[in-house]
Amino acid sequence: MTQQRPRRPDGAYAARLSADMVVEAALSLATREGGSALTFRALGRELGADPAAIYRYFSGKDDLVLAMADR
Predict the structure, then answer these.
(1) According to DSSP H, which parts of the chain are helical?
(2) Which of 6, 32, 56, 58 would give a disulfide with 14, using CB separation of 3.0 to 4.6 Å?
(3) Helix (H, G, I), strand (E, B) or coil at 51
(4) Contact at 8 Å (CB) between 25 and 47?
């Protein structure tokens, strides 16, 4: 039996994330709306994913910002 991808409450499939995807979306969001707009909630909307899913890749905003600076 194959494992099905999880679905969001609206019935759409949940996004498959990676650390690179999160960093790219964060850079895009910060460039477009400014650094103060960079929150995990806004980033979740940008990615089409639950904001808590970002914590699988980054322990917090400081960790994410460091990854953004490295990029």
Answers:
(1) 19-33, 40-47, 61-70
(2) 6
(3) helix
(4) yes
Q: Report percent pLDDT > 70 for the chain.
A: 79
Q: Residue 21 has what pLDDT?
A: 94
Instruction: Yes or no: say if 29 and 35 are a contact pair by the CB < 8 Å rule.
Output: no
How many angstroms separate the Cα of 54 from the Cα of each of 1, 2, 15, 17? 28, 25, 11, 8
* pTM score of the predicted model: 0.77
pLDDT exceeds 70 at position 8 = no
Please answer whether residues 40 and 51 qualify as being in contact, where contact means their C-beta atoms are separated by less than 8 angstroms: yes
Rounded CA separation 15/33 (Å) = 22
Distance CA 18, CA 65 (A): 16
Residues making up the chain, counted from first to last: 71
| CB distance 49 to 38 below 8 Å | no
